[in-house]
Amino acid sequence: MPLEESHPTLADGYVAPPLIRAYRGERPETTPVWFMRQAGRSLPEYRELRMGTDMLDACLQPELASEITLQPVRRHGVDAGIFFSDIVIPVKLAGVDVRIVPGRGPVLAEPVRTAADVASLPPLDPAALEPIREAVRRTVGELGSTPLIGFAGAPYTLASYLVEGGPSKEQLTTRALMHSEPETWHALLSWCADVTGAFLEAQLEAGASAGQLFDSWAGSLSLADYTTHVAPHSARALERARALGVPLVHFGVGTGELLSAMHAVGVDVMGVDWRLPLDEASRRVGADVPLQGNIDPALLAAPWRVLEAHVRDVLERGRAARAHVVNLGHGVPPETDPTVLTRVVELVHAHG
User: Is the separation of the CB atoms in 164 and 157 below 8 Å?
Assistant: First the structure.
């Protein structure tokens, strides 16, 4: 289904901003930049606004989620807003009992580990996504010409939380299920693909100009396992978003060996974490693929001369790709000084 005529990218006189041009493979006059997890965490205005409000509740209050999305755009002058939400929001909206435990992350009341567990997972009612649509509409109305990026968690990452019952560094139980119960695995990943795909589609239809699929835990997979057991479900999650015709980005942590396979699920842009230089990433996926990344988040705490040299190196290596959007190689650490992020934006924009 195409975008509705009310979508901002279809408005009379619409001119694609630098970020969207770069996502489409052009080289705008100014290199665009935004930061994963720029909404929240490091901003004092975010902490003040969130005080006394549970994380998942904040995500589901349209006015609050919109304001949090807008804060870093106002403060840093980044080239895009990233919709403030959480990877497990579509799981919660489907009716699964999940909560965010401070210092740990998403935790489920009951892990999903058997065929019966998977069969009992409820479908996501499209009406449950209305708070998401409303938050996006509010945000787009305030952003003006600055685009909003929608986001969703990739099926493997969602499945990992469901199977492990919470965050896990190696996803041992998850990967064991993948191999020992392939039919159960397929059913679980199909459910994850459908709920997260609907979540992303709702953001795009409501006004987001691009979308990003995050696979936080795919770095634990071999290329063979990813290609056989995961990639088809990531492609399924993106089906409805692809039909809308907006640029799509894919990003994973520790996924340097999977880049080509992750690109092949049907995205326009590949995000790259800090472990792999962008010129090498471009060689792996092909010089025609726009790249996003990949400042090392650790260096945000380094002396400015060190960070500046690193950012300039990232910019130079990014020239190997058809187009380049500067970002971090993962999310903004919560202890980051916000003024450092503002200086990075200024440096990137001045670099041209």
Answer: no
CA–CA separation, 238 vs 260, rounded Å? 16
Identity at 141, one-letter amino acid code: G
Q: Is 166 helix (H, G, I), strand (E, B) or coil?
A: coil
- Return the DSSP state at 100: E
Q: Are 80 and 20 in contact (CB under 8 A)?
A: no
Count, residues in the chain: 352
pLDDT digits (tens, 9 = 90+) for 135-190: 999 999 999 999 999 999 999 999 999 999 999 989 999 999 999 999 999 999 99
Evaluate whether 288 touches 253 at the Cβ level (below 8 Å).
Answer: no
Active site residues: 37, 41, 50, 86, 161
The owner of tokens 């998942």 is: 56
- Which spans in the chain are helix H? 18-23, 44-50, 55-59, 62-76, 89-93, 115-119, 130-143, 155-164, 172-180, 182-206, 223-225, 231-243, 259-263, 278-285, 304-318, 338-351
User: What is the rounded average pLDDT of the residues 20-27?
Assistant: 98
Nearest residue to 315 via CA among 299, 332, 291:
291
In this structure, the number of other CB atoms found within 10 A of the CB of residue 34 comes to: 24
- Contact of 200 with 237, CB cutoff 8 Å: yes
Residues 6 or more apart whose CB falls under 8 angstroms from that of 42 comprise 332, 333, 334, 335, 336, 337, 338, 341
Three-state SS at 194: helix
60: three-class secondary structure by DSSP: coil
Token pair for 168: 């896990």
Out of 19-23, 48-52, 148-152, least confident range: 48-52
User: What is the rounded CA–CA span in Å between residue 134 and residue 67?
Assistant: 12
d(CA 36, CA 19): 14
